Amino acid sequence: MDTPTLYIANKNYSSWSFRPWMAMTAIGIDFEEVLIPFDDAAGNPSIKAVSPTGRVPFLKHGALTIWESLAIIEYVAELYPDAGLLPRDRAERALARSVSMEMLSSFRVLRSACPMNIRRPKGRIALPDGVDADISRIETIWRDLLQQSGGPFLFGAFSGADAMFAPVVNRFDIYDLVSQNDTLAYMETMKAHRAWRKWEEAARAEPWIVPEDEV
Length: 215
Fold this sequence. Notes:
The chain is an alpha+beta fold.
């Protein structure tokens, strides 16, 4: 099997890149990484030269190119069906896809107000209307799934759904947005995962600073 190549942007800021990278690293597959940094407000024209959408992440596997975080995770889950990125139970798979799609398409107020930033010192900011509703909905998703599965991850073992919510874990943490014990426990579980720690270490070592993401 050809070794897939995942194209990503800055690990400190790129929430979309974080998701498939964490999923692929968590299950221990062999893949190559190409990082094209966003190092100014206009991004990096090198990405448009190689990406079908002009954005990252995207995955190259042989002659095939797959873009969008969730599509990449789903593709890898099909390549490695025993790796656990999707729950084995059909009903749980449907639920995992539902919450992953909700993460993909929703919570825009939270994402806009609180950009992912691994290096940011923890501290609160003034929040616009709508952030509290996004936080409440995400906490409800996590709480319901953790109660059903028994944890420590959303569907028991680590899955692609956890990877989809990884950037939110960072946002909740660095902007000090949550205080519920079950939410905090899940966040600690995520931050203790070896894939998270590997990404964080690399993010903290990056030289690039994007001012508009330094809230």
